[in-house]
Each structure stands twice: as structure tokens, then as C-alpha cells.
Amino acid sequence: MNNTRLAFLLQFFEEDSNDPFNAYALAMEYQQTDVTKAAEYFQLLLEQHPDYLPTYYHAAALFAELEQLDLAEQLYQKGMQLALSQQNTKTYQELQRAYRGFQDEYLS
Predict the structure, then answer these.
(1) DSSP reduced 3-state for 16
(2) Are 5 and 32 in contact (CB under 8 A)?
(3) Which of 3, 12, 42, 66 is deepest in the core (most CB within 10 A)?
(4) Cα separation, 9 vs 90, whole angstroms
(5) How far apart are CA 43 and CA 25, in angstroms?
């Protein structure tokens, strides 16, 4: 993790915590070194910005890694529903492929 980049991301978040991208960027940055912090930012996004579609793919994968399989499955499914409602076919297909991989790896 680049400490300078993290400092900038934290500053951006402090300046505008209502912008979902700022929390998303922090979650992605923390995912490399502190999965607990990453999970906290993903949870924040899911609670405060449930329509922010980019969250679902990475949050579901992280929670699967953390063996929170029910939550991961719910996130894949909700993300796919959200992608369809936003008419975002590409993201829907990416989530669908990831969900199938998740099912093969964790639920078989």
C-alpha cells in the first residue's frame, strides 16, 4: 500500500464522505493490506450508497475470502439485480460470471 496515496484518499474521504467513490477507493486500497478496514468501507458503501454498483463485485469477493459466504452470495445476487435495474449489461455479466465462480469454489 502506498502511504501517500492512502493519505490522499483519506483526505478526499474527509472532505467529501458523501461521495461513494471516495469510500470505494479506500476500500480498494485497504483490500491489499488490511481486509478488516476494507470490509468496513464496503459495509459503509452498502449501507449509505446501496445503488453504487461498483461496490458489489469487490465486496462480494472480499466477503467470500473472509468466509462470510451468505453475505457474499447476497451481494452477488443484489449486485446482479441492481445492474439489471440500471440496465448495465456488462456489469451484470461480470457479476454473473463471478457469482458462478463463487458457487463453484465455495458452494459445491
Answers:
(1) coil
(2) no
(3) 42
(4) 27
(5) 13
For residue 4, what pLDDT is reported? Answer: 92
Q: What are phi and psi of 75, to 5 degrees?
A: -70, -40
Block residue for cell numbers 461513494: 20
Q: What number of other Cβ atoms are within 10 A of residue 87's Cβ?
A: 8
Q: Are 56 and 78 in contact (CB under 8 A)?
A: yes
Q: What are the pLDDT tens digits along the chain (108 aa)?
A: 578 999 999 999 999 999 999 999 999 999 999 999 999 999 999 999 999 999 999 999 999 999 999 999 999 999 999 999 999 999 999 999 999 999 999 988
The residues, ordered by sequence, that sit 6+ positions from 63 with a Cβ below 8 Å of its Cβ are: 39, 42, 69, 71, 72, 75
